[in-house]
Amino acid sequence: MSARSLRITGLGLVALTCLGATRVGAQERRRSPDGGGAPPVGAPTYPRMPFAGAWQGTRRMEEGPGSTNATPYVMVIESDSAGRRYSGYALLPGGHKAPVQRLTEANGVLSWHQANSGGGTWVYTARLVGRERIEGTLVLRDWPQGGGASPSGTLTLVRRPPA
User: For the segment 11-70, what is each residue's pLDDT rounded down to a tens digit?
Assistant: First the structure.
């Protein structure tokens, strides 16, 4: 082989190595065995928007299926840059985001709606209990399979600390 063909071959190998290194960096983030991702890290708190942050806890139904077990619930509440409105989402297993609608705060009570996968709408109402804890209730409204029943339960969330 000539010196010129060796240089071209060498450059080709360097290019392939760089291409392979780029692909390694694009691997999917690791997840826990049950398919849920790690809860998001919290954000600094602001007195003007006390509910903003990443929250983790449980919800427990008072009756019906699932009433004997608390289920995990992770929620991220964000505020706009002017500090006037909240928006947010629940983090489902597998890292999927389920947006919440009608997220409002009045007189220290936060309320929001979230679509139920089997029809109907979850209606949440909660208040701060100290700076780092939210407690409240949830009711499933307009549940097609419920025959007029509205299953209800309780919710307890704790703020995730900032990074």
Answer: 444 443 443 443 333 333 333 333 344 556 665 566 788 999 999 999 999 876 667 789
Q: What is the pTM of this model?
A: 0.70
Q: Residue 116 in contact with residue 124, Cβ under 8 Å?
A: no
- Please answer whether residues 85 and 79 qualify as being in contact, where contact means their C-beta atoms are separated by less than 8 angstroms: yes
91 vs 156: CA distance, rounded Å: 15
Q: What is the DSSP string of 52-69?
A: -EEEEEEEEESSSTTTTS
Q: Are residues 138 and 116 in contact, defined by beta-carbon separation less than 8 angstroms?
A: no
Q: Do 77 and 70 touch, CB atoms closer than 8 A?
A: no
Phi, psi of 5 (to 5 degrees): -70, -30
Rounded to whole angstroms, the Cα distance separating 129 from 125 reads 13
Of the candidates 70, 61, 51, the one whose C-alpha atom is nearest the C-alpha of residue 129 is 51
